[in-house]
Amino acid sequence: MTADHRAPLRHVVATFGVTAAGTLWYVLWTVTGIGPATVSYLPLPLAAAGAAAAVLDLLRRAPLTPPAVRFWRLMLVAFGLVGAGYTVLAVAGFRDTSILPPMPLPAAALAGAGFLAAMWAMVRVPLGIASPGERWRQWLDRAIAFLGCGTVLFHFGLAPVMTAATPWSTQTVVLLGLSLALAAGGITKVAYIRGGPIDRSALRLIGSTGLTGAVVALLLIHGGDAGSVADQAVVMPFAAVLGALAVRRQWQHTAAGRGRAGAWLPYLAVAAVDVPLIAVIPDELTTADRLVIAASVLVTGLVTVRQFVAFRENARLLADKRASQERLEHDATHDGLTGLPNRALFRRRLAAQLDRGDATVLLVDLDDFKTINDSLGHDVGDHLLIAVAAVLRRETGTDGLPVRLGGDEFAVLVTDPTALGETIAQRVLDAFTGPLSEHRLLVHASVGIATAPAGTPLDRLLRDADVAMYAAKQRGKANWVRYHDGMAQPVASHAQLGGELRRALDAGEFTVHYQPIIAIRTGRIVGVEALARWQHPTRGMISPAEFIPAAESTGLIVPLGRWVLRETCRQAAAWLAEFGPDALQKFGPNVSARQLHDPDFVSDVQSALADSGLPANRLVLELTESAVLRGPQVSRALFRLHALGVRLALDDFGTGESSLSLLRAFPAAIIKLDKSFVDGIELDPPGSPEADARQAVARAVVQLALALGLDTVAEGIENAAQADRLIELGYSLGQGYHLARPMPATEMTQLLSTQRDLVSPS
Ligand code: C2E
Ligand code: CA
Ligand code: CA
């Protein structure tokens, strides 16, 4: 409900004014006895009209949901009918000035229909029940509660009227009964509503209007004619005041209602029924009869208590369960150290915001955190991160969502559309000018800001912010920079990447792409090279040319390489199983020098083969010359691999210094001619001495390989002319964008099935 839809007070004031005037008149009348009693017929129709006007106004101007509209329309009908009924009575009353004309039938019928309309409105209020089981349980509960409440109200309200010495007219009894039923129904219904389109307290007030019937009954029993006058003038109009108040509550209703479902009500009702039961025990019963009744009452009482205890227990268990679910959910979406939302939650929220409109993110990276962590220890580092999180929380305030992305990387998703990223960034940087955490450390941060319109891919926005953040670092740190188009993507330093590689490996951000190795003449795929790919969460796909050197310098190439090896073997075995043993001959992962130094490397290869079931002779390890020339330990490993049947390929062949002599000392099976010898090989006649030399190397390599019984693969073939020239020179296998690009495993699978269908059309 927006601010311009204000709840009007005038209807409440009007209905209350009429009721107050009626009360005043009644007091004067009883004290002085002046004036005709017929005045008592006026307040109720007037007050009912006031309540009806209030509902009408609500229906006209308030933004209501369809169920609420339905409810209030019925209430309008109810107030209208009751008002009409009592207007008819008033007219009859003024015609026939004897103090108490019996209620004319049409009047009673109208008022009764009004009560029924109100009850129907109550019945139709949605409860928001989820399952059929729950529906049944609630119906039972509500039936018990309704009967319990109803019995009590009947006993104290209706029964005395029905059995009174001077009998009351049927109309009066029926109307009383209906109003009490409305009260019982209202109480039972409201107890089960947790929120929803119709305001709970509005419902409660409407239900209470029926309770005025109980007061009326009391007055009628004890007051005689005077009671009837009081009822007309004072009590019944009060029901309209309650109605007007209910309308006002509905105006102030905010959709997210709360409140506990009154599952306790049936128990209370069961116990309550005992009260009239005891009251109606006739005097002439024997002691034995009384004992039986007392025992029954006691049993129902105890069962009620028992049920109530069980109910409390269940409620507690449910609350526990909900709490532990919430905790699990919290743990999954928050960072354990700082308590900030984590990367997963950040991405979810950012995606949602980008669906709706613009989104601005700040990437906050601590400058030189690694130095602090390494020199002062992890404990100090952890405390610092917690302090940084506190700063971010404080400085972001209600403008956005601060998160920890991992390591010393934080981010802020700006959620307040009026807040400026720059302002938040400056506040954060200002907060960092003083010492932080109990260790009084000075840190600085670099902040990258980027904004993107709705529909921008999330990773694109994050990459922009990342680029801006690196630009901030380059500007001398402790700086913020907003991304603008054309800002160059900087090459990250090894140290920065190294820190992230470990996380990325654990987070499963790496995949393997496969580039076909092809028989150039026939176009048939004979093998694949396995190439690592890093799908970075903020920077998108990062090239291995960028992260492999970082992985090597940090040593992470060992676990990363092991993973690539195992993944390649697994995928290779899967393809052989699907497409048959002739589908592919070579599966070639790249192996770094650092891996060859790892004493476990050979056994890693063995277990990768054993676990996948890939035959050893299908595995081709691609090694560079420089990796191979690393002393006796590496040599021994290579010979052991050779002995296992694994083939070794010399990668980037021709670029090293000792390529030829290497072939004697090394059990290679395949030579991969480096791309630099393929570049320009098609130019005819050869343009420069340099090009001549390249061709000469390409020719020499293939002849040498032939002489030594090795396979050759020409790398980096980018056009048909190069392919033709290589065929002329004697190459049969090639690899390159012209033949096929590296691709994800799924695409490779498709390619293989197309090839199978071509070879053996069924
Ligand atoms: P590489 O072993 O020489 O792999 C061939 C590279 O050339 C691949 O780049 C491939 O995509 C690219 N390439 C293939 N055909 C063409 C072409 O026609 N034109 C051009 N311009 N390039 C072509 P990528 O995938 O970026 O890999 C770069 C290097 O990263 C690889 O060079 C390899 O040394 C290293 N690398 C990749 N994956 C791994 C790995 O799992 N472990 C290790 N240790 N190194 C890897
Ligand atoms: Ca390679
Ligand atoms: Ca290569």
Residues in helices, as a percent range: 55-70%
Radius of gyration: 43 Å
- Counted by DSSP, the helix tally is 26
CA distance, first residue to last residue = 68 Å
Main sheet attributes: strand count, strand direction, barrel closure: 10 strands, mixed
User: Structural class per helix/strand content?
Assistant: alpha/beta
Total DSSP E strands: 15
Quickly count the domains: 4
The global form is elongated
- Beta-strand share of residues: 5-15%
Low-confidence stretches: none
Mean pLDDT: 85
Bound small molecules, by name, code or SMILES, are: ligand C2E, calcium ion
Q: How would you describe what is shown here?
A:
It is a single chain. This protein has 762 residues and is α/β, with parallel strands linked by helices. It has four domains: 3-263; 281-330; 343-485, Alpha-Beta Plaits; 496-745, EAL domain (TIM Barrel), CATH 3.20.20.450. 61% of the residues lie in helices and 11% in strands. The strands form two sheets. Strands 6, 7, 8, 9, 10, 11, 12, 13, 14 and 15 form a ten-stranded mixed β-sheet that branches. Strands 2-3-1-4-5 form a five-stranded mixed β-sheet, sandwiched between helices. Helix 1 runs antiparallel to helix 2 (43-61), helix 2 packs antiparallel against helix 3 (66-95) and helix 3 (66-95) packs antiparallel against helix 4. The model has no long low-confidence stretch (mean pLDDT 85). One calcium ion binds next to strand 11.
Give a quick set of tags describing it.
single chain, Alpha-Beta Plaits, 762 residues, 26 helices, 4 domains, five-stranded mixed sheet, binds ligand C2E, ten-stranded mixed sheet, alpha/beta, binds calcium ion
